[in-house]
């Protein structure tokens, strides 16, 4: 995933919930804002009455305000008007002529009227606030909330990207160290094994045993070379060749056959004798041996491990079947085993399907190799 895509993913991951939260708060406090404006209007009217009541020269008093609309009558005669439009004059006048005091609403205004004494005469005052101003204030508040959401989400997304990039740098550094360690271990193991292989002829054992030891040492040397593959497990196979799969299986069986005497196990091959596949020989060899290792480890004593090769419609199918004991922790091995983790990674790189199933006391590993 590119850095830009990751940024937008993190941005919207935070922006959507925060903006939703702010908008919900705006709807919740929307009515409270109207009540707050009503309180301000009432307080402004009372303050205006105090001002006008204290002014002896009421007719010459001018109170200029750009926030509210004001109209004042004395003994039913208009003595003052501020910010009143001609189109609204008669509407305000009729409201002032009413006897009831308090808050009123029209389609365009929030209005407060009140009677009071001025110079021993009866006066009435009207203060009005255009509703469009209330709406404008609400929109400013909503816009501010959305801007806050954008800014907050932007900062969090940037910080998240910086954290991810830091983790990626650390992972690359750690991976490089692992690769160097794999190369070092491969070299250190291969050297004494090569010396042992050269001196094998001097070992006082029968020829068959020497052959088995030689195969085992060669196999270990190949496995040390595969440490580089494990360190770079995501590389693609480079040594693709066409070969008889049954012959590979028989080579593996011969390799294992002399080491199964402790549990008195027998490896058997069944099915087709000749099926050609085109893939990486060494990687497939490693995959199958890992599965056989698993089968040998959990097989019940005095039983057979059967390798059966069959043709399907789209795949060459190799099944490995073994009898397992009641106390086997094979399922835990399937979840956490390093060997089977390598099997899955190799299978993915080769385009091979591997699945497992258990039937009564038998455990079956199935390898599906596509035709090429």
UniProtKB/TrEMBL annotation:
Single GO cellular component term: plasma membrane
A matching Pfam family: HATPase_c
Reactions catalysed: ATP + protein L-histidine = ADP + protein N-phospho-L-histidine
CDD domains named in the record: HATPase, HisKA
Main location: membrane
Domain Histidine kinase: start-end pairs: 184-372
Membrane topology value: Multi-pass membrane protein
Iron-sulfur as UniProt keyword: no
Molecular-function GO term, any one: phosphorelay sensor kinase activity
Entries under PROSITE patterns matching the protein: HIS_KIN (PS50109)
UniProt GO BP: cellular response to phosphate starvation
TM annotation in the entry: 6-29, 140-165
Domain of life, per lineage: Bacteria
Transferase keyword on record: yes
Catalytic activity, EC: 2.7.13.3
Keywords recorded for this protein, A-Z: Cell membrane, Kinase, Membrane, Transferase, Transmembrane, Transmembrane helix
Subcellular location field: Cell membrane
Protein name (record): histidine kinase
Organism: Thermocrinis minervae
